[in-house]
Write a structure and sequence with these properties.
By secondary structure, this protein is an alpha/beta fold. It is built from six helices and five strands, in the order E-H-E-H-E-H-E-H-E-H-H. The protein binds 4'-phosphopantetheine. The site of 4'-phosphopantetheine has 11 residues, from strand 1 and helix 4.
């Protein structure tokens, strides 16, 4: 049986931490779907289609395996997407205890709703301080975000 994993998130914008987790998930699972989901709790910087495009460019730039597809979901629960495509696993990156506390309730609810398991991958230590919110703030104030994001994202934000 082919094992499909979904890597969901806001990806506003995608960071080197995300790319690390996506690439490692692609080495574990048969197929990985990177899913851009609108998080109503967060004020968005980029439109969803732009985030999808930047993830696609970043995956190409990092030369990740070919079993990754990028899409978005705005019509319901994350687990509805998982059920629709036959994905049994959600993959999330964990940087710290704060992420564990944030992710735990979602993992339990997603398992209760649809039996979808969540697998946590520890982010690589060099990315442990990287977040999209930090990137948004540094970029918004004119700072250099190149150490934290793929080149396609840095170029896009600096053009912006
Ligand atoms: O990158 P983020 O913002 O931490 O990602 C959070 C996200 C988008 C994965 C989460 O908010 C989510 O799963 N939203 C979809 C709605 C949903 O299914 N909610 C109930 C289960 S948590």
């Amino acid at each position: 049986m082919s094992r499909i994993a979904v890597v969901p998130g806001s990806f506003d914008p995608v960071t080197l931490g995300h790319i690390d987790v996506i690439g490692r998930a692609a080495n574990i699972f048969d197929e990985v779907h990177v899913l851009v989901v609108h998080n109503p709790a967060k004020a968005a910087l980029l439109p969803i289609a732009q985030r999808v495009s930047l993830i696609e460019q970043s995956i190409a730039e990092a030369d990740l395996p070919g079993n990754i597809k990028v899409t978005s979901w705005s019509v319901g629960l994350l687990v509805d997407y998982c059920t629709e495509v036959g994905a049994s696993v959600i993959v999330k990156g964990i940087r710290s205890q704060i992420d564990v506390a944030y992710e735990t309730p979602m993992a339990i609810v997603n398992r209760n709703l649809a039996g979808v398991e969540t697998v946590f991958l520890l982010t690589s230590p060099e990315n442990a301080h990287v977040s999209s919110s930090l990137v948004r703030q540094v970029a918004g104030l004119g700072g250099d975000v190149a150490p934290y994001v793929p080149r396609a994202v840095a170029d896009f934000l600096q053009r912006g």
